[in-house]
């Protein structure tokens, strides 16, 4: 019997940053939020991004999502290099290829849950796929809430509407910025379960910025930042392992007086 020695196929990369620098302010007050950060985001996986306060994790997410331009280095979404795009091209890219879930929900208060979910398609002039919409609202437990406006929904329900809105366009990648920050523990667990199933059942790529080790443990991989640079990675994270890594990062950055 012949045993194949061919290498396993490489995991596709949904997004990547190469030697990225982002500085805010000028002169003595300048803050280098990213200082040569390099990272790959594998497709079809759930990546959490963590780091001490001021480490650059939200800045990295905003750069990868095309929400903020970088001063140096390269950002790619698939094969598209974001630095060469104009503002209109970036707007279309974010609308058509990226989904967003924010801590503050960002729902339109005058629209129903269904209208909020379909808003990206409405803005793009596209019709929804009824089967995908039905699957999303059933998975997210929103079938009986579609006619309600945000003020009539709990915080957990509002965040699930935001997740459905992010997924309805079948984006290449979803960025979630502290998505459990405004939720109680039960709603947070439910939401994290939804994000996990989106990866496992739908093949979605998700990048989540979080400070919560319990949230990070839902991910396939955690990327750690410190002082604007990648400070390590952790596959198959557990809460104790994440806490240990974060304790080490906090001690290091505190020792440097930053």
Could you explain how this protein is built, in words?
This protein is of the alpha/beta class. The chain has one domain: Rossmann fold (3-Layer(aba) Sandwich), CATH 3.40.50. It has helices at 57-64, 87-97, 113-124, 130-139, 155-167, 185-202, 213-216, 239-255; strands spanning 13-24, 31-42, 46-50, 72-77, 80-81, 98-102, 173-177, 206-209, 221-226, 229-235. The strands form 2 sheets. Strands 6-7-8-3-9-10 form a 6-stranded mixed β-sheet, with helices on both faces. The longest helix has 18 residues, at 185-202. The N and C termini lie far apart (60 Å). Mean pLDDT is 89; it is low at 1-9.
In summary, what is this structure?
This protein is an alpha/beta fold.
CATH topology: the name is Rossmann fold
Radius of gyration: 19 Å
What would you call the structural class?
alpha/beta
Mean pLDDT across residues = 89
> How would a textbook summarize the main sheet?
6 strands, mixed
Strand-residue proportion: 15-25%
Order of helices and strands: EEEHEEHEHHHEHEHEEH
Q: So what's the CATH class?
A: Alpha Beta
Termini gap: 60 Å
What is the number of independent domains? Answer: 1
Unreliable stretches:
1-9
Within CATH, the superfamily carries the name: P-loop containing nucleotide triphosphate hydrolases
Q: Specify the number of helices.
A: 8
| Total strands | 10
What is the CATH architecture term? 3-Layer(aba) Sandwich
Give the overall shape: globular
Side-by-side strand order of the widest sheet: 6-7-8-3-9-10
Give the % helix: 25-40%
